[in-house]
Every structure is written in structure tokens, then in C-alpha cells.
Amino acid sequence: MKNAELPLILNIFERFFRSVSILILAFLFIVAFLQVLTRYALHISIPWTEELARLMNVWLTYMGVAYLHTHNGHIKAEILVKLLKINRNEKIYRYYNIIREIIVLGLSILGLYGSWRAFQNATTNVLASIPSVSYVVFYAPMVISFVLIIDPSSHHL
User: Fold this and answer.
1) What's this model's pTM, rounded to 2 decimal places?
2) How many Å apart are CA 62 and CA 74, to the nearest integer?
3) Side-chain half-sphere of 29: how many Cα atoms within 13 Å?
4) Where along the chain do its domains lie?
5) pLDDT (mean) for 6-29
6) Residue pLDDT, tens place only, 134-156
7) Lowest-confidence range among 35-49, 68-82, 114-128?
8) Nearest CA to 13 among 141, 115, 143, 148?
9) What mean pLDDT comes out for the span 112-124?
10) Which of 28, 102, 103, 138 is 20 to 30 A from 113 in CA distance terms?
11) HEC states along the chain?
């Protein structure tokens, strides 16, 4: 799917996710380097670096999932298509894609429901090494990602 084909809101999210992903990856590298440097060279451990690296990894993963789904870049189960030697122009291939999108849509709705419940339950918990930060920051990317997966999936049907 090209950028011109995306609705305006998805274009904004896509540009935002791409920019933030680059920043998070760079910051993740710096935090991981700092963690290794302090732990092995200085023989001290900074407690918040591990939690922050984990948080950035969660954000990067779920933003990548949403980005790839928006651009139809995920690995697909094409083994059935290859085994049955279905041509991509055939009508059955269209039905296969519809069934696949229904499955993705259903699983994404379940994921959104579960991540939303976890998000709500996490509002009262804080990170152990960074007490001023709520666990909500771990569940927010899941909610955002599933919303961004559901929208293109519903349009593919």
C-alpha cells in the first residue's frame, strides 16, 4: 500500500511512528551501551537502564507491527497457496485473502480487548526502578498498534 492510498489519519500516524521508531532505536542503543559500560567497565549497575531498554523494545515492536501491517509487509502463510498451486489472479486467491483478513481482524480485536483491559489495570501500578512512571507506558503501544491494525484490515475486506 502506497502512502497516497492511506487515509490522512493513517498517513499522520505512519510518519509519526517512523520518526519515533528511529528515535527510540537510537535511544535504545545509547541506553544499552550505557548499561554495558557501567556494568562491565565501572562495575556498577544503573537500575533504570534495563527497565527503560525493555520499555523501548516494547514500543519499537508494537510500532513495527502496526507499520508493517499498514504496508502489507508481514510474512503471510502462503504455503497453502503454493501447495494447491493457486494463481494470484484466480477467484479462490481472493477468497483466501478475505479469510486471512477476517482472521487478522478477529485476532486484532481480541488483542485490542486484552490490551485495553491490561492498560486499565496498569493505571495503579508503577515501574520498580522508575517509580514516577506508570505501567501504562508498557500497554499503550499495544492498544495503539491493534487500533492501527484493525483499521486497514477492515478496509481490506
Assistant:
1) 0.73
2) 13
3) 5
4) 3-156
5) 82
6) 888 888 888 888 888 887 666 65
7) 68-82
8) 148
9) 88
10) 28
11) CCHHHCCHHHHHHHHHHHHHHHHHHHHHHHHHHHHHHHHHHCCCCCHHHHHHHHHHHHHHHHHHHHHHHHCCCCCCCCHHHHHCCCCCCCHHHHHHHHHHHHHHHHHHHHHHHHHHHHHHHHHHCECCCCCCCECHHHHHHHHHHHHHHHHHHHHHC
Q: Given CA atoms 104, 4, 68, 12 in this order, what sign does their dihedral have?
A: negative
- In this predicted model, what pLDDT tens digit does every residue of 67-106 receive, in sequence order? 887 777 666 667 777 777 777 777 888 888 888 888 888 9
Residues in the chain: 157
The amino acid at residue 16 is F
Fill in the amino acid letter for 113. Answer: Y
